[in-house]
Write the structure tokens for this entry.
Amino acid sequence: MDYASGADVADLASRLNLSPLMLKVYDALFRKGDGRRAADELCTLPQTEGGGYPWLMQAASRLIVKHESEWANPSKWKQLIAELERQEGPKPQHEEEQKRIDRLAWWDEVKVGVPGFPVPEVFHIHPIALISNFAAKFQFTLPMLQHIFPDASANVLQEVVDELNAHILLYKLDSAPRREHFFAQVKQETGSSLLLHNESLNYSAETLTTGTFSYFLKHPDEAKKYGRTKDHPANEEAIANRVYAGQDRNGDPESGDGYRYRGRGMIQLTHRGGYQRFTTWHKTKADSWSQDATADFEADPDSVGQVKYAVRSACFFWVTHSLYSLADQSGTQDVVDSISKVINPGLFKGKPNKMKSESIDGRRGNFSEIHNWGGLS
């Protein structure tokens, strides 16, 4: 309460001012440092942005801490009400909140009717964290993905974690090398922010004429017309409709298929044919997701931008192209390249250019970083 209210206390945030319980928690988590900002460090522990401690939060979830239950001793909350009234003055809602707390305190009432019921000083555990300590199979965690995608939303990453953990075996992500290669590619496709929605085709006219797309090598005037210049922004729809025209069941530029079925998801599902195959595969796995087994991604391509489908579409590609088998071979640069060739064959065709080189080097660098980190083992 002193810390929360900014009381005039010497070294307010210091470990010297922590309660005995929180001092034990602090010392179990923070093994280094002088503890002068102990309260600050504990308060920022659960934050996922702006200086939090995600790895320590994972460790904190595994602590078993003995302290008085919050369902007992309602009188201890009077200090909270008193502090609120000191700052804001007496208000009717303060009294009502105390009444609500009184009604929630059930410990003494149950103890009267249950012989041998324990005192309120009990051990508190995080049930999911406890189970994960004994689980035989690997489980993704939010801190793991935050390490790989430091600029991504924690809410999005948690959805990814939940989707992956529900289907690790189906997605063939059941070994460290598979996970490392998978996320090396995903990070290059989506960036450190894990952008899952529509593929960006915000290309400059110069880039379009340097070998990125064969169409604009043959039509340099259209590259100037639709590509980004100092005089106008890129016309991404026109670019997509031309560079993807006639590919994998796409129609001609006028059909709009190129833009409609542009890249989406964690490994950029592209072309009408890709969306059709994903729909078929998704329906064959109906037992794994019975609630949305009839989803039609050809009819609703934008839905692939939703987190669960963005994950599934990437894993569909990973599984149906047997990329996990390539990942099993080793962690060499050649293996990274062999997977990259399947995901983006254009990187290794035609004349090299800066964009291609950056993408190839990025995938290699991502794998090396993730592998050396070791957090997916």
Remarks:
- Residues 354-373 form the longest helix (20 residues).
- The mean pLDDT is 89.
- The two ends are 41 Å apart (CA to CA).
- The CA atoms of residues 210 and 217 lie 7 Å apart.
